Structure prediction request, 597 residues.
Amino acid sequence: MTLVALFLLVLLTLAAGQPSLPVPPSQQKPTNTDAEALGAVFRLWGLTINASEGACPSHAWHGKPGEKASVNCSCSAECRVTHLNVTGFRNITVIPPELFNLTELVSLDLSNNNLSGPIPPEVANLSKLETWHFNNNQLSGSFPSQSSSLRNLQSLWMFDNYIEGPVPQFIENLTNLIDLRMYGMKLQGPIPQNFSNLTNLEILMLGDLEGGRSSFNFIANGSNLSTLSLRKCGISDQLSSTLPNLPKLKYLDLRLNNLPGPIQPLSNYTNKTYLYLGGNNFNGPLPPEFVQSSLALDVSYNLFLNGTLPGPKKSINYINTSIDANSTIGSENLTLLNCLRTKECNRNNYTNHVTSFAINCGGKLHHSDPLRTVFDEDSTNLGAAGFHVNTVSQWIVSHVGSDPFSESPGIVNTSSNPIANLSELYQTARTSTSALWYYLVGLANGKYIVQLFFAEIVIVDGPGRRLFNIDIQGQNIKKDFDITNEAGGSRIPMNITHEAIADNSTLEIHLYWSGRGTCCIPYDGAYGPLVSAIKVFPYQELNIPPPQAPPHSTRQDEKRQGVVAGIAALCIAAAVISSSIIYLWWKWVSLVKRPMA
Prediction:
C-alpha cells in the first residue's frame, strides 16, 4: 500500500469515528510513516478530520470557540506533513511520542492548550522546524538540551509555562532566530552573554527571570531589532554606556531592573515609539530629548530622577520621581503628587483629609442604588503611559503599558454588545498590558476596607486566560488572579474584599501583569490587569453600632419611661376590673339556676 493510500485510509477512519482506543504511550510502538504518526497523535488527542480528494490533503477546521487545527503537507517527492497547528484545546494534556516521527515538520504550533509534564528530548528529531510555539500551557521541568539541534528555528515562543532552570544556554546556537519570546516562567538568570550570536533577531522578549544579574553584553549587534523587552531581568548596567546602537528599535521596555545612574540620550533615538524605564534606580536630570509628542515615555518609580518638563506632555508617566511639573499641571495636582511622592500627607502639611473613595474604573459617574454609593468618573485616556489626578476626591490613577504589536485599549466596555443581567458598574473597565496603580491620597490614618469589583468582559469565549497579580499597600493578596475562574465564568461579577492600614495618609492599589496568561485572544494586547470599580471605606462602617441617645435626651427618656409605666398600670387595672365583672356574672347565674333546680 502506498503512503498516500495509507494516509487517506487513516484520515477516513478518523472521519468515520472509528478510531481505536488510545494506547498508553509506554505501550505504543514507533511508527515509520507520517500517516501512522498523525493518526496516533490525533487518536490520543481525541481529534478527527475529514479526508478529501487529493494526493496529500490539507485541512483547517474549528471546534469550539478558539479551538483551531490545521494540517498542511508537501508532496514534491513523497507526501509528508510539514505544518501542524493544534491550538486552544484545553482537553489536550499530553505530548504523544509519535509527534516526533513527523520529521519533515517546518511549523509546529501547540499554543493555548493544557499540555503538562516536561518537554520530551525527542523534539531533537524535528530538525527542520522553523516555527515552534508552545506558549500558554502547563509544561514544567527544564528545557531539554537536545533542542540545540533545531538550528533552523526562526520563531520560538515559550512563555507562560512552568519551565524552570537557567536561561537555556544552547539558544546561542540558534542563529537563525528572528523572534524569541521567553517570559512568565521560572527561568533563572543571567542571560548568557553568547546570546550575542543571535544577530538576526528582530523581536526579543525576555522577562521574569529569578536570581542572577544580567548585563547588556549579550546585545553585541542589535542592528535588526525592532522590539526589545527585557522586563525584570536583573540588569544592573549603565544604560547609555552599554546598550549598543539599535537603529531600527521602536519598542524598548527595561522596566523593573536595577539600572543605575543618569539617563543619557540613546543612539538613533528618533525612531522609538515606546520607551519604558520605570522601576529602576535612575538619578539626575531627565534628558529633554525624551519628552516628545510621538513617544510614550515611562520613568515612574525612579525617585531620584529630576529635571523640568519643557511643556505639556500627555503620554508620560513620572509618578514617584522628583521631576518638576509646574509648567504642565496645576498647583492642586502638584500638591497631591508631592504628597504621594514624599508620603507626608499628615495633619501638619495636608489638612484636607478624606475617609472614603469610590471609583468607576474606565467609566462615567455612577450612582449605585444597592450600595448607595456614588462612583467617581474614571474615563480619562491615559495613552501608553500616563496618569490622571482627581483633585476633588483626591485620588490618582497611573498606567504603564502597551502591547508591542498593537494599540492596546486602556478602557474597555460592552457598549456595542451590552451584557444582559450585568450591572452597569461592570460593563466598563480599565485595563493595561503592564501595570495599573490607584493611589488614594490624604486619607485619615486608620484601618480601611478595600473592595475591588471585577467581571471579565473581554476574554469571554475560547481558551483565553487573563492572569495578573494584585498588591495592596505593597502586600501581595492575589497571584495569577483569574477573574473568570474566580467568578465561575466570564460576564459574571465578583468582588474581592481586603483590610488595609493607612498609616501615612495614602493607600496604594497595584494591579500588574507578570508575563502569564494568553497574549492574543481575542486580539493582540488582550492581557494584563482589568478592574471594573474600587471602593474604600473605614473599617468600622462594617459593624455600625445601634444609635446612641444624645446626652441632652435624659428628660425625654424619663418622660418616655413614665408614659410606658402609666400604660402598663392602666392595662393591669383594666384586667382586674374585667375579671371582677366576669366573676360577679358567674355568681349571679349560679344563684338564678339554684331555685329553678
